[in-house]
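Severity: low
Component: inverse-folding endpoint
Summary: output formatting inconsistent between runs
Steps to reproduce: submit the following structure tokens with default settings.
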């Protein structure tokens, strides 16, 4: 397969082994790192595997997927392996289909989002069936049992109590890190209640937001980083057979038109799948669709406070979907501003991640939708007077 050779270069395959495969397998042998491994498989591994497919080749893509499956098997046994397979394999297969079939970018994004959503719902249903449709209660019990058996559990319970996350009715002993049995059990009951109630809103939020953001990133980042990697490989191959000119041999400076022509010619030499992805700094929600997404955001925010469980869940889903779309637009605006100011590539990647972690990208996306800072939306034509 031309788009997925066995490997593109030995250096890129080695980088995949060091960045993806080795950490997953290494951390899976530590129970303390189990939560981090599961989180990495859920949020990062699909993106990393897709990036490795276009940057390093089929061998690296398969190695990353296999490492995720083995890590989950090491942590959770056959059940973990099955859940990881249900989640990862459809996403990797969908990505391969989009690239091989040259499906247009936005249709490919829609397909990747749908596959992400279906995979996460399948995992959710399997977990519910395994826990007798009491997933949130089972998670609360598991969290309290883990803290009870952990040697540092008492210290963690006190930290949760001092931070205001859990309550305590029976009191503490004078030694702050040595709890009485009654205090410990009361704190563990509070932990169980906290986990159960938080998961009721957190799980639907994760399913929707991870489907949208993960589905988009599984195409955006592989296409972008894969093209950069292939561009460098082509340049290095040609540089080996081309003498280096120095001093006066360089000749006259190239004009802007000549430089653009050379860039176009270089791109034509690069054998890389083109599915029509627009530049990220130009991504935006059209004006009409923006008002609909904004209405969904407001409705979801209000419905989250409803006492009716069905309306509450509907509000959580609406708010998660709308805020995810605005956060992607916010990241595009940040990238536009950074490109305008000549920011380095590493900083253009790091800053949106930081802003996402502090939940500012959604606000930036809403601000861009209202003010049309980049001028990408056509101004409304004035109505004629009769």
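Observed output (run 2 of 3):
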């Amino acid at each position: 397969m031309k788009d997925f050779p066995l490997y593109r270069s030995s250096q890129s395959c080695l980088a995949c082994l060091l960045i993806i495969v080795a950490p997953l397998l290494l951390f899976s042998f530590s129970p303390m790192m189990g939560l981090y491994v599961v989180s990495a498989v859920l949020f990062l591994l699909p993106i990393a595997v897709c990036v490795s497919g276009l940057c390093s080749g089929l061998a690296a893509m398969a190695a990353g997927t296999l490492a995720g499956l083995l890590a989950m098997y090491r942590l959770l046994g056959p059940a973990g392996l099955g859940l990881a397979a249900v989640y990862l394999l459809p996403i990797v297969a969908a990505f391969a289909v989009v690239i091989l079939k040259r499906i247009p970018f936005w249709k490919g994004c829609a397909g990747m989002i749908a596959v992400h959503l279906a995979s996460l719902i399948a995992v959710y249903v399997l977990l519910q069936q395994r826990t007798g449709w009491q997933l949130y209660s089972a998670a609360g019990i598991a969290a309290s049992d883990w803290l009870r058996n952990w040697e540092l559990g008492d210290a963690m319970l006190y930290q949760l109590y001092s931070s205001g996350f859990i309550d305590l009715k029976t009191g503490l002993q004078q030694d702050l890190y040595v709890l009485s049995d009654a205090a410990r059990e009361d704190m563990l009951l509070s932990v169980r209640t906290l986990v159960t109630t938080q998961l009721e809103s957190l799980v639907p939020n994760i399913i929707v937001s991870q489907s949208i953001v993960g589905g988009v990133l599984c195409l955006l980042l592989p296409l972008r980083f894969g093209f950069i990697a292939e561009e460098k490989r082509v340049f290095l191959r040609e540089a080996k057979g081309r003498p280096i000119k120095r001093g006066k041999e360089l000749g006259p400076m190239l004009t802007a038109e000549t430089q653009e022509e050379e860039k176009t010619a270089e791109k034509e030499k690069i054998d890389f799948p083109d599915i029509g992805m627009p530049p990220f700094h130009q991504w935006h929600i059209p004006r009409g669709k923006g008002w609909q997404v904004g209405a969904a955001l407001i409705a979801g925010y209000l419905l989250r406070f409803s006492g009716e469980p069905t309306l509450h869940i509907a509000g959580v889903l609406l708010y998660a979907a709308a805020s995810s779309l605005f956060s992607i637009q916010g990241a595009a605006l940040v990238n536009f501003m950074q490109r305008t100011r000549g920011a380095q590539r590493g900083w253009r990647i790091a800053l949106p991640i930081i802003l996402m972690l502090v939940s500012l990208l959604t606000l930036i996306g809403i601000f861009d939708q209202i003010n049309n800072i980049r001028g990408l939306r056509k101004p409304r034509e004035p109505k004629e007077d009769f």
